[in-house]
């Protein structure tokens, strides 16, 4: 089963650029830091800071794209299920965007890997613009590169495939990451975040981000 899932994710990632002949391409950096604080055995509070810097957009020119501040209240309802309720404040050029979202997370733990699902609803609020909505589904696989579980000072592989629909158009994301468990309190993931948007249009929007995420448990 794990081989089939990995093959599917890699197939989507490799074949996506060939499906659409015309596209606008951006390449950039996507660093992020996440702070998680456990409130009790079932709830935790998660805050993060993320920025985007573009290094290629029709030509090579470094530009700052946006910055996100997010806060999430997560409730664990069972050993493998949880709900997230969150808010994101986004500054993009001269725009300020407010986003609220709700996540349902479900994780299957197998002997040597984890299979995760996330269903999400999102609401976007901007001044002088109508409120917009979006749905998301993400499938992810996480597997240690040594043994049956990830221990301190060990690497792991995480592959993700996500579909985003705003009721007018579709976006697909593929995210192959390599993770490293630095200590019991923090870990780092780095890899690629490939996105193909406006798939129902003649010209698609494509971005390739070099992503680094630092997770810190307080």
Please summarize what this structure is.
Helices cover 8% and strands 69% of the residues.
Would you mind describing this structure in some detail?
- This protein is mainly β and 218 residues long.
- It has a single domain (2-217), classed as Porin, CATH 2.40.160.
- The protein contains one helix and eleven strands.
- The chain has one helix spanning 2-19; strands at 23-38, 43-57, 60-78, 81-92, 95-109, 114-125, 132-144, 155-165, 170-181, 186-197, 204-217.
- Strands 1-2-3-4-5-6-7-8-9-10-11 form an eleven-stranded mixed beta barrel.
- Strand 4 (81-92) and strand 5 (95-109) form a beta hairpin.
- The radius of gyration is 18 Å and the shape is globular.
Fill in the keyword field for this structure.
218 residues; Porin; eleven-stranded mixed β-barrel; 11 strands; mainly beta; 69% strand
CATH classification, class level? Mainly Beta
Structural class: mainly beta
Main sheet overview: 11 strands, mixed, barrel
Task: Give the distance, in angstroms, between the N- and C-terminal Cα atoms.
Answer: 35 Å
Percentage of helical residues?
A: under 10%
General shape: globular
Enter the CATH topology name. Porin
The CATH architecture comes to Beta Barrel
Task: Give, in spatial order, the strands making up the sheet with the most strands.
Answer: 1-2-3-4-5-6-7-8-9-10-11
Q: Number of DSSP strands?
A: 11
| Overall average residue pLDDT | 90
Q: Write down the secondary-structure element order.
A: HEEEEEEEEEEE
Number of domains: 1
In DSSP terms (H or I, runs of 4 or more residues), the helix count works out at 1
Low-confidence parts, pLDDT < 50 over ≥5 residues? 4-8, 17-21
Q: How much beta, percentage-wise?
A: over 45%
Radius of gyration: 18 Å
């Amino acid at each position: 089963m794990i081989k089939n899932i990995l093959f599917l994710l890699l197939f989507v990632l490799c074949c996506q650029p060939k499906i659409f002949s015309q596209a606008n391409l951006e390449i950039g950096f996507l660093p992020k830091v996440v702070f998680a604080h456990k409130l009790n055995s079932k709830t935790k509070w998660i805050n993060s800071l993320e920025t985007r810097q573009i290094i290629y957009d029709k030509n090579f020119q470094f530009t700052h794209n946006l910055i996100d501040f997010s806060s999430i209240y997560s409730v664990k309802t069972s050993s493998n299920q949880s709900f997230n309720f969150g808010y994101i404040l986004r500054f993009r050029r001269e725009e300020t965007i407010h986003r609220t979202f709700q996540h349902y997370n479900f994780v299957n733990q197998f002997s040597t890997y984890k299979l995760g699902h996330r269903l999400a609803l999102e609401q976007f609020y901007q001044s002088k613009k109508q409120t917009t909505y979006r749905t998301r589904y993400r499938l992810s696989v996480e597997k240690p590169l040594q043994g049956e579980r990830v221990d301190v000072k060990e690497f792991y592989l995480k592959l993700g495939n996500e579909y985003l629909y705003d009721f007018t158009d579709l976006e697909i994301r593929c995210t192959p990451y390599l993770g490293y468990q630095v200590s019991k309190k923090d870990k780092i993931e780095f890899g690629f975040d490939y996105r193909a948007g406006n798939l129902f249009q003649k010209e698609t929007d494509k971005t390739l981000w070099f992503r680094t995420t630092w997770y810190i448990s307080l």
